[in-house]
# Entry
Amino acid sequence: MGLSDSFYGNSRRKAYILINLKNNKSVNMKKIFLIIAVSAVLLSCKKSWLDVSPKGTLSEAQVAENPDGLVNAAYAYLGNDHYTTPWSLWPYGNVRSGDAYKGGRDEADIQQFHFGEIFINQRSDLGTLDGMWFQFYVAISRVNSALANLNAKTDTEFPAKKQRIAEMRFLRAHWYFNLKIMWKYVPYIDENVNSNDYGNISNRELTNDQLWEKIATDLQFAVDNLPASQTQIGRPSKIAAQAYLAKTKLYQAYEQDEQHNVTKINADKLNQVVTLCDAVIASSYSLEPDFANNFINGSYENGRESIFAVQFSKDDGTMFGRLNYGDVLSAPQGIGCCDFQKPSQNLANAYKTGVDGLPMFSTFNNADLDANVNTVDPRLDHTVAMPGHIWKYDPNTVYQVSWNRSPDVYGTFASQKENVKRSEYTQLGPFYANTKNKILLRLADVLLWKAEALIELGRHNDALSLINQVRTRAKNSTSLLKLSNGNFESNYKIETYQPGVNCTWTQDFARQALRWERRLEFAMEGNRFFDLVRWGVADTYLNNYFSVEKTKRTYLKDAKFTKNRDEYLPIPYQQIQFSHNLYKQNPGYTQ
Amino acid sequence: MNIYSRLKKRKMRRLLFLVSFFLLATIANAQQRTISGTVTNKTDNLPLAGATVTSPKLSVATNADGKFSLSANTGETLTITYIGMRTQSVKVGNESEITIQMEPGVVEGDQVVVVGYQTQRKADLTGAVTVVDMDDINKLPNNNPIQALQGRIPGMIVYTDGSPSGSNVNVQIRGVGSINGNAPLYVIDGVATFSGMHELNPNDIESIQVLKDAAAATIYGARAASGVIIITTKKAKRGVTSVTANARGSYSWYGTKMQVLDAEGYGRAVWQASANDGSPLSKYLIYKFDYGRDANNNYTLNRILLPEFVDTTTRTMRTANTNWFNEISQPAYSQNYDVSLSRGTDKGGSVFSLDYLHNQGIVRTTDFKRMTARINSDYKLINDKLWIGENFSVSRTQEVQDPGVLNPALQALPVIPVHTIDGIGWGGPFGGMNDRQNPARIIADNKQNHYTFIRLFGNAFADLEIFKNLHARTSVGLDYGNFDKRDMQLSYVSGYLNNPDNKVTMSHFTTSQVIWTNTLNYKSDWLKHSLDAIAGHEIVKYNGMDFGASRMGFASEHIDYMYLNAGTGLKDNYGGASETRLMSYFGKVNYVFDRRYLASATLRYDGSSRFGKNNQFALFPAFSVGWRLNNEDFIKDNFDFISDLKFRYGWGVTGNQENIDATANRTLYATNYSGGDPTWRTPDGTAYDLNGMGSGTLPSGFQLIQRSNDDVRWESMTQSNFGIDFGFLNQKIYGSADYFVKTTSDMLVRPAYIGVIGEGGYRWVNGASMKNKGFELLIGYKGLIASTVNFDVTANLGTYRNKVISLPESVVNTYGGNGTTDNILGRPWGSGYGYVADGLFRNADEVANSAEQGAGKGLGRIRYKDLNGDGTIDQKDRTWIFNPNPAYTYGLNINLGYKGFDFMVFLQGVGPVDLNVYDVKSMTDFWSINETGSNKGTRLLEAWSSANTSSSIPALTLTDRNNETRFSTYFIENGAYMKLRNIQLGYTLPSKISSKISAKSLNVYVSGQNLFTIKSKNFTGVDPETPAWGYPIPSMATAGVRLTF
# Structure
């Protein structure tokens, strides 16, 4: 009740006093008592006058009326990241894998990523790690808020209840999956945890396997409750859930001990991977005819290969658009800024092919790629920008040495997949962002997961056609790389694996072929380091990489991967502190 | 003169009327005769209107010409009092005409001060109240009167900077009051506000009182925790018409600029860093290095080569050697004029004043303009029983603020020219250089982006005498602000930085605070008793609203063109509102017996909309007692050198509700469609393109922004004060001393929280409690030297110690420490936790024989102390290394007067205090821990190297392997300083001369401000008062004239 209400409510009683006294004294006294009366009214002012509602905010009850509101906000977090805490995980999946250099001005430009790159000084108190950790849990908290609200609804109140729950659990699985591959042991919080208990849940409450099971359970629920296709393309379908579950089971199959050594590959899990992949392969998704289509802006987005992608947008009423802010730093300096995430020489060399059209498994790094001499896999020109080659299929834009910010430190390559044509950027401050969707799951991945599972199951012969499907598509992906004079950007030569003709298809060879294929197909897409850890080869692979690469890049001179530590990041010190030392630091890190 | 003393005089006038009537009736009394006289001010010989002349039987007031007449018997004593003047006594002799010359200066006890809804004789005060000597601050060129109080009030620390508006002033009374802000409550003519004292015309101020302890401040309850400053503006003096005018001009300059590397020095530093790392650079940005090895096989730099052009290919920017601090600085001129007209009559009066101020800042393009107008008027009606009036001011301020250019001026590379070779285009970074903006462009493009703020402030009141001594008063106060700004963002090309899209943002906000105060006041003296009681009710309603809109795409960047309507590009807008309310009941009783025993009690009951239903109201009690020993016979008889001696004790509780969200106790969700500006921070939007359309309106939702806490309650402050006021040798020596103990309980805080809670984990909780204990001393000595030179020296000293005394489990991690066993409990509030830097490693033995420091130990690196002795430097080796509280603060004011000359020196200082200088020192002492690649301070050239092993500045390195960014004692310096705040010489022209221009008085003066600073040798920065990137405090020379007609 407002002031005026209480005034009128009480005025009658006061008026009585006023009249009564009026008769006694002079006219002036009327004024006196008017003042007294008004004061008395004030004194009787109700406490409710102090009930002031906050402006422009909603209460829990108001929010609960619109369950899709919290669901939408949970989706929104797929695009809420920033260049020091990118969802694409480029500093963690690419820079740490030997596929990419950090880039930028020099080592000290975002030093924390530099320390990650050389696996030296990777301290638990680095702000980027804490920021990343927090950002994951913010995303999870949005999912859990949406789930708690959905759980409280009946099916009649909200008919889409079950489907939305499935969508949310898909998202939650996605966030925990990424947390898991970065830190291995993380606190697991779902919508049933009382917020007062959050601090009491250790990162070791669940074992490695139990954590994987939590992720798999959410995805299984999604598989069971999502429709085979969604009218709104931004939502995951049953197929997406199956694909993600396959990925989860594949990681789960490589069992690790406490020191991150891969101790066993679980055949049961591998079989589940095969089954799930089969379901996805049988769906309407298929490989794009041209590899490039997965990395082009506009009408190619949400194409036939894209099973689940982060949707970016512009001209949407937000300040600059909901752009891919996580990857802004990797626009070359020639675009504007800032020339981070630069393909390594080693990666470029890996695309060299031999006379047989196959990768040069053992000799690729003996000499650096020379585009005038070597034959290459066409995916090189889709992935790595090289001076003198056109930028992003735009014949009018030639990528040049001068586009590079610090060629003396980080060489002259640039990453193309997350970038767009020069005209398609949106400038914000010094940065250049774009709206191209980021594909999280694409069919090629599913094909190669299945192949990987089959190879580890000893069914490498069954894997051959899957790998060759991917290679065949790569072979056919040259039309956008053709120059106006009829020549191609590079001298392409790529063949499928043909046992007896250009290879002997043993399990070991198949495994090597698969791992190479994954690298060539998914380079710069944020996976590579986690593949290496899954396979249990990160230490040998990376120290081998450093031994050669540091002769070309002096900034790598101190780089060294420490086995049984560097497979995972340190739990952020601040979080350990907030947990009152309940969280246990990962092996190998002192604090 | 303030309204309360006017009240007192009104009563006296009524008395005079009655007495005259009585005299008329007994006209035959022969022994009495009429004495008439004139009261004048001794310093300027001007008549004093409204002085009170009291005989044993009655008292009268002087008229406009300072004249009075009354009946008295020979031998009786007349007492003449006037506020601001020393009380005089005259024995009635045979003369019928007497002249009384009053001397300025106040006998402490006779001063009447405003203490919150009431006035009190200073002698009767039992709280800790400091009265500001306005004469000392009136001539200072501070446009913010609070700035001028720096160093003048013991126990009150004023933190400020040199911005031309003088708006950046933080006041801390008696230590850290609350973590939720230390801003005292300003009560101007009874209207309370927290904001914008620089919008007030200082010449309008009649008096300032600082209420420091709870006994004095509790009457303001929930808003008084950080002290109360009471300001009373000038009122017309009865029967006086006067015009005063002031003019003042100042010239200010940037005293000491930060020393930054020049073009060569920058190259030298980065090369040295790489050489120290074992792989010397041959190229860096546009630098080429020619280096070799000396006889000891150490790398040496022979030569630095720079190209003719920064942009080697396009050749538009000639390689420069720019000193960016020079480029952003300017000598600044300021001027201030004010005129005021005062006219008083028997039935009331009015004061009208105008003020114009224009201050240029020493950062180029910054400036501040202010115009104010005030009208204070009052009238008496109904046989003087009803008194109505108003005090009202309008101010218009306009300011171009520093767009944050000081830090960029350090960071911008010296090789970058200000302009391209055509002299028009902007220089900027090229190639691999940092994306830092050209500081000269930043300020040039910002020069038209001023805000305009209009503030209406004042109150209207009515005061009615209901019965004898009982007054009802009602007052409606208003504080209304209207802010407008147009921000033009111009397109530019500056090296590789560019902005092709121009943009205009127009923003607006209004704030309004309405205060309605109703009081009943009873004041009565009988026999030896004196009673003054007040009861009241007050409501405060605050509303704020803001909105803004922006548009891009303007065909012209002309200042008259760039308005929203003219744009063709993207539009955006925003807006919001807030509201808070406060409802209060209060009462206070002051009692004096025989001018010896004093007592006072206060209760205030405040309800605030900021708090939850369960804890919406809080009670704030206080009491105080005093004993005026100098009125005791045993003092009078035995110690006649004691002219004033009073003991005071007070206890009380005050509250704080400022800076606490209006909705502290609720769970709140919000829609956040856009997610904010994503340029430098993570967007947190709630909209997402679920449909995959790529554009258009997106489905959106809600985010949790705050979790509820049903238990949230008031934070409160309990304070005890022991005080003594003294005066000796007829007040030749005077002063006061106070000791206080102040406990702030349950300070509200929104603690950082464990990451797994995710979004919206913020909640208001009642956190730590802390205690401040302190001592304040004010002492003065005044007199005459050789009967011609007046002097008055006052010194003040304040000190306090602060300690956190309780720390609830829920916030144990919030205030630093190691998160478990070692926390801030028992330590000063704001203490910092970090490593102890134990010098540098100077030889291989030291490196080999010290604890492990992760990847980083090595020659020239900082060695950290292994506090727990486990052989490894890690988080366990941190301890408490920083205490932000100064050991003491002080001020010294010396006034000398000789004939028409007056001379003043004012020194102000801060004793030893820890300063955390990380913000600057990380950029003056290191290449690689902060803003790598940017320009740095010249100290880098003195860093440790194998050729310079005596340096205490760590060796340069390209990457911070030793984690020297960690908070350590390396970044703690002593911030003690003493500044010559003001030195001033004035001259009042003899009245012979001033009267030739019909002036009653004419005074001219010259002065200098901040002319020198003494600071600790340990301090490596520029100014310990603004150790980081605050607006630099200029040195200043001022000349002015004051004229009275």
Notes: Chain A is about 40% helix and 10% strand. Chain A touches chain B through 122 residues (CB under 8 Å).
